[in-house]
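Consortium newsletter contribution from the modelling node. Members have asked for a concrete example of what our holo predictions look like. Here is one, prepared for the NAP complex that several groups have been discussing at recent meetings.
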Amino acid sequence: MRKIFIVGGAGKIGRILAAELVQRDLQPFSLCRKAEQADALQALGATPVIGDLLDLNIAQMASKMDGCDAVIFTAGAGGKGGEEMTNAIDGDGLALSVAAARRAGIKRFVLVSAFPEAGRGKKDASPTFENYMKVKKQAEVHLASSDLDWVIVRPGTLTDHPASGLIDAGLTLPYSTVSRGDVASTLAEVVNMPQISRTIIELTQGGTVVKEALQHLIAE
Ligand SMILES: NC(=O)c1ccc[n+]([C@@H]2O[C@H](COP(=O)([O-])OP(=O)(O)OC[C@H]3O[C@@H](n4cnc5c(N)ncnc54)[C@H](OP(=O)(O)O)[C@@H]3O)[C@@H](O)[C@H]2O)c1
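And here is the predicted structure:
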């Protein structure tokens, strides 16, 4: 069974993703910070791996990833801790995970990034949000310049609506929203579709069944 390491495993997307991977006979290994998150992850069928992006060095992170076939990075500071924490988690945490994957010999790496149009034109856009968007782009550049078999997924603004199973996915799309459930099922499909490689996918709620939308992308 293929093993998938989730950075941000106890997050909202991370938890749904674990269940989606299990449904597809993939085995999730979910990085989480707190022992109390482990039971809930186990109940979803995931193997919890305790670790904090702020504490781990490359060798330690690589040993946590050891034996996995792919990494999905869906961690983020979520605006908590200001610019410093965004830089540390969304930026340095991604760089650490990329370096660790390379050291562990893992080629496949999927990054949850953000839609470039998110928050554009807002008169009251905070410097913290501007920094978040800058760090997400830097993380994309970092991953895309690596020698990994990478995929960057850029969801629109996330909602907690139930997954519809219907998305739009493309190289460039009009900005919109998408549910975390549909992001998770898209990630679970993408990680298992080797034909999708070294590309950026923009993702919104739409009208096409997730797997079909991704197959269209391959065909194009
Ligand atoms: N909100 C939006 O509209 C939007 C749009 C596009 C993309 N995104 C991106 O989507 C991703 C996930 O979203 P989400 O809703 O699932 O977020 P979430 O629930 O906040 O999940 C983020 C995860 O990152 C983990 N994390 C934070 N600091 C960490 C650290 N030091 N060490 C290890 N893990 C750490 C959190 O751990 P804990 O569980 O311990 O807190 C949490 O599990 C983020 O990268 C975000 O930037 C968001």
